[in-house]
Design a protein that fits this description.
With about 100 residues, the chain is α+β, with helices and mostly antiparallel strands. It has 3 helices and 4 strands.
């Protein structure tokens, strides 16, 4: 658990809550691709919170921060599939991981 998505150094909870910091609260998952696929984690992500909610707070942003092009492609593809199957716009951003 930590903060990502911003350019500020030393992001902390107090600064994020006060809107001083541009990071979002987030969870970083390290996994062994021999045991779990990235798609499995995407499926859990899409089904664990309301991805259709409008992002009205940087602090509680629905986002996927990817580390490589394979992750970007799989995240965008699964988002597009969810939009097609639900008929709703997914309001989750998919952006490169810049800092943690």
């Amino acid at each position: 658990v930590g903060y990502t998505g911003g350019i500020s150094r030393n992001a902390n909870y107090k600064d994020i809550c006060n809107g001083i910091c541009d990071h979002s609260e987030s969870v970083q998952i390290d996994f062994d691709m021999n045991k779990n696929s990235y798609d499995e984690f995407l499926n859990i992500f899409w089904n664990s919170h309301n991805v259709f909610r409008v992002n009205d707070s940087r602090q509680y942003l629905s986002a996927i921060w990817f580390e490589n092009e394979h992750q970007r492609y799989r995240a965008e593809k699964s988002r597009d599939e969810l939009e097609r199957s639900s008929g709703k716009k997914v309001n989750t951003i998919i952006v490169p991981l810049t800092s943690w």
